[in-house]
Amino acid sequence: MFHYAGIVILGLTVGFLSGLFGIGGGFFLVPMLHAVFNIPYNIAVGSSLCQMVGTSTAASLKHHDYGHIDYKLAGFLLLGTVGGAEVGAQILMFLKGFGEITFRGLSVSVMDLGINIIFVIMLSTVGIVMFVESRQACNNGIYSGVVETKISKFIHNLKIFPVVSLPVSAINGISIWCIILLGFGVGILSGLLGIGGGFIMCPSLIYLIGIPTNVAVGTDLFQIIFTSGYGTISHFMKKNIDFALVGCLLSGSLIGSQLGAILHKRMHGSHVRYYFSLVVLAVVAVIIIKFACNIGFCVK
After folding, report:
1. CB 240 within 8 A of CB 230
2. Would you say 150 and 157 are in contact if contact means Cβ atoms under 8 Å apart?
3. What is the rounded distance in angstroms from the CA atom of residue 93 to the CA atom of residue 76?
4. How far apart (Å, rounded) are the C-alpha atoms in residues 115 and 275?
5. How far apart, in whole angstroms, are the C-alpha atoms of residue 48 and residue 229?
6. Bridge partners (DSSP) listed for residue 174
């Protein structure tokens, strides 16, 4: 039985991060539910996706008012994310079927082990890259929300038909296939890890596609509504959702998302990326410590 007050506070925190950084919050919420409240990963994943629908909707409305959503870009992303979400959910159930393995005399779930490894690799990569780039930008007095990389230049020059322009994102031409492929990859992570994909989608839009930070945040939140919605249906059919847990999370996250969106409006793009990287790296530390304790490496 989880602690209701703690879940509400966790929801408030996740909602705030959602509105501020353009994330569904699953990358933070799922590990916290498992590490702090000992909720099984499959229930944490399904419930996280369910609450994400409400949180991302509330935050998107605020970012819509600020003009931070590129609806055309979001539509192309969704062509890939919906299919990817189902693939991810199937992979999760596949891992669950492997049962447990014994390590140092303790039983460890193969599902937990696999998801922990994926989380640590993905979050560490995103956190370190964003930390280094944003820190350099801040030190050099560069506060622009646009980051130009060699990869983004390559993708912009990859004119594979059909090519579309994205005026809101200040992109004259980009292949639809690049956007769909990105959406598919993020969709897999959504179904597998219980995330809307924000922790990887937002950085990808910024560093791979070259979208301004504020537009990446708003657009990512908008597409998360549909990605997490599809993932919720899939996990509901697999009985991976605890609606009491979802209700507690939403009671805090709906308020937090509005506060986060308001603060985002007042911050420079480089600062948003910098603080986002710190949150990501903090979550990595929690995951590693928790898993180390589970397999007997912590001092009693």
Report:
1. no
2. no
3. 28
4. 25
5. 11
6. 164
